[in-house]
Amino acid sequence: QQQVKQSPQSLIVQKGGISIINCAYENTAFDYFPWYQQFPGKGPALLIAIRPDVSEKKEGRFTISFNKSAKQFSLHIMDSQPGDSATYFCAASIKGYSTLTFGKGTMLLVSP
Amino acid sequence: NAGVTQTPKFQVLKTGQSMTLQCAQDMNHNSMYWYRQDPGMGLRLIYYSASEGTTDKGEVPNGYNVSRLNKREFSLRLESAAPSQTSVYFCASSEQGRRYEQYFGPGTRLTVT
């Protein structure tokens, strides 16, 4: 049973545009929501993470927005660049457990 | 620091053959994980080891076994490979207190014919 639903599966954005990837969850025990970035042929790497007591977190061009009541969170990539082309995974963790639950991923292509 | 290393990078097996995927980390992390990645399926947890001396099943453990050899090393064994195990396998590790931050290795691309 997938506990973190991610959309869209793929996304094409023009250079300079805004890329938006959405995730939704049901389990209210989740207490940390990281995003991972994976380039072709590489392992995923942590990009940015947010706790549910914060509504927004920004790091450079990357912003996580969190809506606790709707149980949704999203990644916004401002001024998207071709170098941002990668697969992005949202994830969630539960306090006291060492595992992450990952979404199925979004393949982002930023066209020049 | 090398981070998380995996061997081999590529492997082709025939159905029924066995092999062990090796993983090592030099970050003194307590927890280690094995994932498989298939198109459209995301990252699925096979087994994990929350700390040295413990291992637990993840979402898709059937057909696999693991060994936490010491704090640094965590191996994944396929006893009798099947074509359904064709995948890219990733090892990861994390430290206690930062469980949301997992460090991934470069992956092993396994093909079973």
Structural description of this entry:
- The complex is a heterodimer of chains A (112) and B (113).
- By secondary structure, chain A is mainly beta.
- Chain A contains no helices and eleven strands.
- Chain A has strands spanning 4-7, 10-14, 19-25, 30-38, 45-50, 56-59, 62-67, 72-77, 86-94, 100-102, 106-111.
- Chain A starts with a strand and ends with a strand.
- Chain B is globular, with a radius of gyration of 13 Å.
- In chain B, the strands form two sheets. In chain B, strands 2, 4, 5, 6, 9, 10 and 11 form a seven-stranded mixed β-sheet that branches.
- The model of chain B has no long low-confidence stretch (mean pLDDT 95).
- Classes of the chains: A mainly beta (112), B mainly beta (113).
- Chains A and B meet through strand 4, strand 5 and strand 9 of A and strand 5, strand 9 and strand 10 of B.
Write down the overall geometry of chain A: globular
The proportion of strand residues of chain A reads over 45%
Terminus-to-terminus distance of chain B? 36 Å
Uncertain segments of chain B are none
Total number of strands of chain A? 11
The gyration radius over C-alpha positions of chain B equals 13 Å
On the 0 to 100 scale, the average pLDDT of chain B is 95
Order of helices and strands of chain A: EEEEEEEEEEE
Going by helix content, strand content and strand pairing, the class of chain A is mainly beta
Q: Please count the helical segments of chain B.
A: 0
Q: Please provide the count of β strands of chain B.
A: 11
Beta-strand level of the residues of chain B, as a percent range? Answer: over 45%
Largest sheet of chain B: 7 strands, mixed
**What class do helices, strands and sheet pairing of chain B give?**
mainly beta
Largest pleated sheet of chain A:
6 strands, mixed
Binned, the helix content of chain A reads under 10%
Share of residues in helices of chain B = under 10%
Average pLDDT level of chain A? 94
